[in-house]
Amino acid sequence: MKTIGLIGGMSWESTATYYRLINEAVRLQRGGLHSAEIAMRSLDFTRVVALQKAGRWDDAGTLLGEAGAGLARSGAACVLICTNTMHLVAEPVARMSGVPLIDIIDETALVLRADGRRRPLLLATRYTMEHGFYAERMARHGIEVVVPDCDARGTVHDVIFDELCQGRIRDISRTRYLAIIEAARAQGVDSVILGCTEISLLIDPAKLPLPGYDSTAIHANAAVRFALADELEQAA
Question: Do the beta carbons of residue 197 and residue 176 sit within 8 Å?
Answer without folding.
Answer: no
